[in-house]
Design the sequence.
């Protein structure tokens, strides 16, 4: 049971990150300490300003917390956001055990605790490659298609630009810095239109008619950089007939522009992935 919980925890995070675009990341950004500008009145204005800043900064450190179906996950890491060249490294706590994950290119590497039986060769790292030939990669390829780009914070902003409506804004202090807090509703139909022929699009389409919008919250610092994103997935779980499986993911970003060095694990430490028995 413990092995299964660890595996489920790891995959829950991966799927949530792929599905939400997100944020694998959370942080308290490094603002300049300057004065906040007036809140933006439209999602398009907000995204234009924030996208320009994230594209310039390109990297950050982050923390995240997720509570989904009673499974609580938390962790931290760092990332470089560059579209298809996005790279991330993170460590998370699942069921009291540490799991390390790296995303390099379009490949996901996971280092599981000893005794989980996740690699046939007994090596510490497993690999999920959307273009790989092993059964596990093939089975999960749809979930990880374009995963690296979806973990780029600019992709979250793109979703807001094309499918979001600002419902409220206020200037508040968050983690010791002044921020502008935006409440946003994401249009489910418009989200689906952004993800043609993907597993995520099919999932969103299935929700149409059951829920029209999904709420999210975004905090920007005085440099218009994201410092916190909160995604509420409870409405999606309810619409899917699993009212107790919903949850919330909170992502915080800090140290924008900090250099990062993320590499794939040594090849001789990576084995083929298997599910625990």
Sequence:
């Amino acid at each position: 049971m413990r092995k299964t919980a660890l595996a489920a925890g790891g995959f829950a995070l991966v799927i949530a990150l792929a599905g939400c675009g997100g944020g694998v990341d959370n942080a308290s950004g490094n603002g300049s300490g300057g004065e906040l500008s007036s809140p933006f009145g439209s999602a398009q204005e907000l995204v234009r300003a924030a996208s320009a800043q994230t594209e310039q900064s390109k990297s950050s450190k982050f923390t995240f917390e997720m509570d989904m179906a009673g499974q609580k996950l938390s962790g931290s890491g760092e990332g470089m956001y560059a579209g298809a060249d996005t790279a991330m490294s993170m460590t998370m706590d699942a069921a009291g055990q540490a799991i390390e994950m790296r995303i390099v290119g379009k490949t996901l590497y996971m280092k599981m605790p000893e005794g989980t039986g996740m690699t046939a060769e007994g090596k510490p790292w497993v690999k999920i490659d959307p273009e790989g030939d092993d059964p596990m990669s093939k089975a999960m390829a749809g979930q990880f298609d374009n995963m690296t780009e979806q973990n780029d914070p600019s992709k979250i902003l793109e979703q807001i630009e094309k499918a979001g409506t600002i419902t409220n804004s206020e200037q508040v202090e968050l983690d010791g810095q002044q921020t502008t807090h935006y409440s946003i509703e994401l249009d489910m139909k418009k989200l689906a239109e952004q993800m043609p022929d993907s597993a995520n699009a099919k999932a969103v389409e299935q929700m149409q008619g059951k829920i029209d919008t999904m709420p999210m919250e975004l905090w920007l610092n005085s440099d218009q950089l994201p410092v916190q994103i909160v995604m509420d997935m409870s409405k999606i779980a309810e619409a899917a007939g699993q009212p107790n499986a919903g949850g919330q993911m909170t992502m915080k970003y800090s140290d924008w522009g900090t250099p990062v060095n993320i590499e794939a694990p040594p090849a001789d430490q990576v084995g083929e992935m298997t599910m625990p028995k």
Notes: The radius of gyration is 18 Å. Confidence is low (pLDDT under 50) at residues 1-32, 145-150. Residues 220 and 226 are 5 Å apart (CA to CA). The longest helix spans residues 2-20.
